[in-house]
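As a warm-up, study this chain.
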Amino acid sequence: MAQDKRLLDRVHDVMRLKHYSLRTERTYTGWIRRYVLFHKMQSPDDLADGERKLERFLTHLAVDEDVAPATQNQAMNAIVFLYRDVLKTPLGEGINAIRAKRRPKLPVVLTPTEVLHLLDHIRGVPLLIAKMLYGSGLRIIEATRLRVGDLDFGLHQVTVRSGKGNKDRWTVLPESLEEELKRHIARVRVMHTQDLAAGNGAVHLPHRLAKKYPNADRQWRWQYLFPAEGLSQDPRTGRTGRHHVRPDTVQQAVRRAAARAGIEKRVTCHALRHSFATHLLANGADIRVIQEMLGHDDLNTTMIYTHVLRDWGQGAKSPLDSPPSMGGKGT
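Now compare it with the structure written out below.
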């Protein structure tokens, strides 16, 4: 599309004006680019009749590419944003596309022994983050975005800020991990002090915090708990600072550790979060407390872990292991 670059520039401008995260900005522009290429658009006029074009695009994703429902919804949100906020021509309500089918499947959950074997094969900062995923039930992006001030050692709590759905919540901080975290924080503080001395030390803050506390970006409590090894330039502001560690660094470490540990399951960082919930439930924790710590809106989402326990045979014995008494003569 001859106007593609200018269109995406407009998308970037609007998203930054509305203070969308850089991650969302990249995701939305990726979907908008795919939408333009799918329809072979050559000029702004080709964006007309958005409802029908969006229907065809979403149907293509569901039928031809067999994407997950969440992926299809993400694509739809990006294109709706394009028309509503960038082009100022909101789409109608009647988008009649074939919807991707939600395939019910149980999450991958590790046994406690498998978790220990997995952690035995991870080293360094990825190990500490993996322990937080399992010990606190965090998503990988939530763990890497933690700030120093999000840990409360007195209450043994972790505050998750702007989690999924842009909501704050709390979860448990493993007491067995606290001394290791304190040693890690001491090393991070030395790094931050050196950054400040070199004229750096500023960290990205969400817009509402940056506006309310204009000098907070260099304060200790707002620094990332798991900072990157090197400095980088913020693509939005051009300022040099220290971002958080990349999530894929941890994801790769977990995958390699699973292979070395000989675990045949499809092990991801999210499997550690699933294991957190399932093991808590097996130990008798209230499912509504687990729901709050995971940040689920709907209790039915959390209930999936009861199905995992059922598959594990909790509360049921195979008749091969425990033959029933017939209470009389057989027939």
